[in-house]
Amino acid sequence: MRLADDARLVDLIVPLIEAKLGRPVGQNARDLLTRAVPGLKQRAKTLVELADSAHFYVVERPLKLTDKAAELVTGEGASVLADLAGELRLFDAWEAAGIEAKVRQYAENKGLKLGKVAQPLRAALSGSTVSPPIFEVAELLGKTESLARIADIAQPR
After folding, report:
1. Nearest CA to 28 among 14, 42, 40?
2. Do residues 1 and 39 lie in contact, with contact meaning Cβ atoms separated by under 8 Å?
3. What pTM, to 2 d.p., does this model score?
4. Using one digit for the tens of pLDDT, what is the confidence trace for 25-66?
5. DSSP-H helix ranges across 46-156
6. What are phi and psi of 49, to 5 degrees?
């Protein structure tokens, strides 16, 4: 699908997202959704599914976590996120491949399997255990928003 088609999909899902949010979606959020739709539409069969899967991109922080996501970011998961955030703050090449390489390097240096780092990261960035590829999500959200979402989770509650 072309960019114009993706923008049209955003036009169709924004009212669904706005109803769920209880507020309008601004232009910056629409632009983010337009960039995110290519990764989202591959998994969605209906507009409702597409809107549901896109919702986390534009929801206000702190994210409400699903029960399964909350389990991933307690204890060790929160510690991993806090430590990872320190590494990512120093990282300037904020694009999916670079973020992935940095997270893989972090996991290897800490003697962790990638899932022990990527799954809490997914939970922190999306509020769920299911999302588009997490490094793509981080790139689309941007460094500032990604680190803020991690900080929301990694801080004691």
Report:
1. 14
2. no
3. 0.93
4. 999 999 999 999 999 998 899 999 999 999 999 999 999 999
5. 47-58, 67-72, 76-89, 96-110, 114-126, 134-141, 143-154
6. -65, -40
